[in-house]
Model the fold of this input.
Amino acid sequence: MLDLSTQKIQDESRQGEAYAPFANDENLYKKHFYIESYGCQMNFADSEIVASILQEQGFGATRNLEKADLIFINTCSIREKAEQTVRKRLTDFKKVKKANPGLLIGVLGCMAERLKAKFLEEEKLVDLVVGPDAYRSLPALIEEAETGQKAVNVLLSREETYADIAPVRLDSNGVSGFVSIMRGCNNMCSFCVVPFTRGRERSRDAASIVAECEALYQDGYREVVLLGQNVDSYHFLNEAADETITFARLLEKVALISPELRVRFSTSHPKDITDEVLYTMAKYENICKYIHLPVQSGNSRILQLMNRTYTREWYMAKVDRIREILPGCGISSDIITGFCTETEEEHQDTMRIMEYSRYDLSYMFFYSERPGTLAARRYTDDIPLETKKRRLAEVVALQGRLSRESNERDLGKTFQVLVEGPSKKNPLEWMGRSSQNKVIVFPKPDGLQKAQYVNVEVTDCTQATLIGKIRP
Ligand code: SAH
Ligand code: SF4
Ligand code: F3S
Done:
């Protein structure tokens, strides 16, 4: 049966989707690593840090499992399903290891952090377990594992931001690049495992962020996506200038690199996004008019149990503010159905807030209890699975209608589109995104290259995609 918890996961966030790097330099290196990533964009960005550290050690990236001396799986713990997917994949890797006993298998990321050395008891053929703040120790850990010992480092750090490590771009489209601006999370949403797997929040040096964005621009990239669990609480003290750099200020600094470089960011916590950020977005055309503003639930009692620190009314006022300062701004959301004690009426509140917010897109999940979280300790996971799934099906259906209506409102309009390349379905058509993050496909004219800007008039649409033609 189709698992509804993953069906709306799209390539936009690549959440839950595995990828392996393309290496055009396979023959340059004697030893090779293969890495597959799961989870959020930050995990994918981390894999690029890992690739950089490994490359320094003389390992080249390969897409070919048989060619690998090292296999890494960068894991996610956000829902039980995410962990099951990883375990299933590990059984495939173990088969490869049986055929090639010298091969080392390493588990990285959030599941490594959550399970720590227990992982080695549960999965005997795993050789390395490395948490998200311990990637600098990979060379030493690999050496240790090569001697036949099991190697583990799951220490979390209060400072680590990998600021000085230039990521090796894996499987990138060469148009849009992820840039981590902070790590960890200090919010304690009661359902969420992230504060336990990623540790305390810390912001990366603003100068190193701007330098990384500039380097991407020089390499031909035309979009950067600034990443953090809660980007609006970014703050960095620039001691030399005695200046605290807020997220709004950072956005401005990145936007000023070039008007040709688009700036996106994710994720905004509704409690933290400020008017200053909204006005900065309004001021610079190249800051994309799109905000991912996860609501989680539309009911104030459930929001309180979730420890989200805002009410239904407060969230709605934030949506109003966005629409006021940034007319036409795209808004998307994350929604959890069937959280502990949620009633039918409270579920209806979620449906009503979706209608109110007119989300262009949502990522929707049924509640999955995570060991160790506040909710797991305090509340009973008392909504039957079939009820959670039925409520999820209802929000998925509603979002389908909202997405279609949102796309229909764009018919006849013309958008500036950053071209990403051929569309997956039809190579004669190309695709790109509007500032509002909507995918637009259009017939490719001769001479069009990726990373160019074109104006596209919307002539048709589906629920997921706008269809248009290039205008002169
Ligand atoms: N930092 C982001 C979210 C990161 S996790 C934020 O604050 O919005 C991505 C999404 O996974 C969350 O927004 C939430 O909708 C979902 N999620 C997190 N924990 C979950 C759980 N235990 N069960 C179901 N969905 C969950
Ligand atoms: Fe999890 Fe909440 Fe932090 Fe997002 S803000 S990562 S949902 S604890
Ligand atoms: Fe998953 Fe960790 Fe990201 S739990 S969603 S990979 S921060």
Summary: The radius of gyration is 22 Å.
